[in-house]
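Lab notebook page, bench 4
Experiment: in silico fold of construct C2
Operator: M.H.
Input chain length: 139 residues
Purpose: comparison with the prior construct
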Amino acid sequence: MKLRRETPRCLGYPVHYDPRLKNLSVSRGMFAWHWIVVGPEFTRLGEREKGAVLLHEAAHCRLQHRLKRILWAWIVLVSPSRLLKICQEQEYEADRFAAGCGYRDDLVSVFRKLREEADAPYHPSLASRIERLTRPQGA
C-alpha cells in the first residue's frame, strides 16, 4: 500500500514547492481555489520567517487580492497609476495580516534579507514596507 503524502497548508491553503520559482513566494488561483507556491529562496529562511511569508501569501488568498486586481484592471485605461496604488496597498494589507498574527518582526527580518526585485513593479519598496511595519501604532 502506497501512502499519499499530505500537502502542507497554511490557513487551509495548499503550499507547493517549485524549484524554478525566482521569487520567494507567490499566491495563485481565484475564487475558492487558491494555493501558495514557494521557491528555493524560501528554504533558506528560519521557521518563523517561513511562517511570516506563508501568512502574507495566505492573506492574499483570503482577501481575494488576485480577483480584485482583475476586477480593477479596467482602471488602467483611466488611471494606470491608480492600479499600481491598489496593488501596493494589497501588499501592505497582506503585511499587516501577517504582522497581526504575531509575525511582524519575522516579516521585517525577511524583508531585510531580500534584495529589491526589478520584476516586481506592483510591490512597494522593501524600505517602505519595513517602515510601515516598524512604525509605532497610531503614528
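Observations: The mean pLDDT is 90. The helical segments are 47-62, 65-72, 75-78, 80-113, 126-134.
Next step: discuss at group meeting.
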